[in-house]
Amino acid sequence: MFRYIENFHHGIGATGDLPIPVNTVLISSIWVLVLTFVLLKVSWKVSKINTSEEEVHREQPLLGKIVGLLILLLLTVPGLIGDEASRTSVAPLLLWVIIWIGIPVLSLFFGDIYSKINPLTVFSQKASGNTNSMYPACILFLYFAWFELVWRKPGNPTHIGIVFVIFFIIVFSLTKFQKRSPIEVDPLYVLHYLYSRMKITSRNNPINTMTNAIASSTKVKGIEYFHCLMIGAVTYDGLSGTVAWYNQFGSLSLNIFFNTFMFLGCILIVTSLYRFSCYFAIRTSGASHDINFISTQFAHTMLPISFAYHITHYISLLLFEGQTILFRMNDPLGLGWDIFGITDVTVNYFLSPVGLWSLQVIVTLLGHILAVILAHDLTVKFFGIENSDKTQYAFLGLTVALTLQALFVLSVP
User: How many alpha carbons lie under 13 Å from residue 116 in its C-beta half-sphere?
Assistant: First the structure.
């Protein structure tokens, strides 16, 4: 039998009697990636994707600032002035469903929406075009992901309010007084900027436009670590939600210190493997490139993987929990209002478990295939077609490992 696992900071996963044996899915995915790798070696002999870095410059219009301020109020005020439960409060829905997964999905069709309504920059002045590093954003994202995945009550409106007040103060201070760009300090801004590069609705050659947009995304120092953080965090979330994880670690899986250690461990493993892949490519090619340069230049090749992870892991929250938005907006501040006269809500699970699983598997494979394509093109550019196979062995191994892990999490209880 299938079962739905419902938790506000995690997606709802369907597991059970799959239409295809798990081993078949895993083996088939390996062959798909390997065949993609071989076909690229044979047919893709010159770099075709534009990797010229585009300057990140986003203006927030007045209407966007007004909407952003409203979002900020809905995220902070309910939890700071009352004790409304997470099952009825609008704050967790707004954060974990609308901002965390809804806007990234919309960015596939409409591009970068979040920068126009960013609640953390509503009072920030126009930032300069100069950027130094993304390390502050990485640190804040690490804390944000820990709050989402390790903290026991990430859906608690009071906790959400406190976290966003802290984030607002930090981002405002850094952009106002140190003149830092939001791309350097605002983790949610970075997240949505990167995911907006996956837009698929361009009028002319949408696939080429998307790949060029991905490859020309910012190369700010530290961008590769942000990608590794995104992938590592979701990897931990997926694995820690399986029965196999609990069977392995038992009651330790309920310990916040143990979970913090494993959370950081997953991120460290992903980061180390990515850095090793870059080092392996340099050593096997005999090139004199600096590893930090290659690590930064290849960062965008991880974007399709992190995006696929994000979508597949949280899409069920958007499809099902998103249906409660009017019910939660009926009393947005928890003050006893009755705006729409809605007293209860019924969630329609319109997508079957098999349909949900199939969608997740397809998106996962497409993301990893695109990552292999982007990596091959960049390898040809930096190391030449004659080295395009041996320099990518480590990256291909990393991609296969991530694919197997993702499909395992999607396919087991």
Answer: 10
Which of 199, 218, 179 is CA-nearest to residue 51?
A: 218
Residues near 97 by beta carbon (within 8 Å), at least 6 away in sequence: 317, 318, 321, 322, 325
Looking at the chain, the whole-number percentage of residues with pLDDT higher than 90 is 71
- The residue with tokens 């990140």 is 56
Helices (H) and strands (E) in the chain, counts: 18, 2
Instruction: Give the integer Cα–Cα distance in Å for 93 and 324.
Output: 8
**CB distance 120 to 189 below 8 Å:** yes
pLDDT value at 115 more than 70: yes
Q: Please check whether residue 286 is in contact with residue 391, taking contact to mean a CB–CB distance below 8 angstroms.
A: no
Can you list the alpha helix ranges (DSSP code H) found in 186-255? 187-196, 206-215, 223-240, 243-249
Q: Which amino acid is at 13?
A: G
Q: Could you tell me the residue range of the domain that residue 68 belongs to?
A: 3-411
User: pLDDT band at 125, cuts 50/70/90?
Assistant: low
Q: Is 271 in contact with 232 (CB distance < 8 Å)?
A: yes
pTM above threshold 0.85: yes
Amino acid occupying residue 221:
K
Length of the chain: 413
At 36, list the tokens.
């993609």
∠ Cα 404 409 413 (to 5°): 140
**CB neighbour list of residue 43: distance below 8 Å, 6 or more residues apart:** none
Which letter, b or e, does each residue of 376-396 get, where b requires 16 or more Cβ atoms within 10 Å of its Cβ? Answer: bbbbbbbbeeebbbebbebbb
- How many domains does one find in the chain? 1
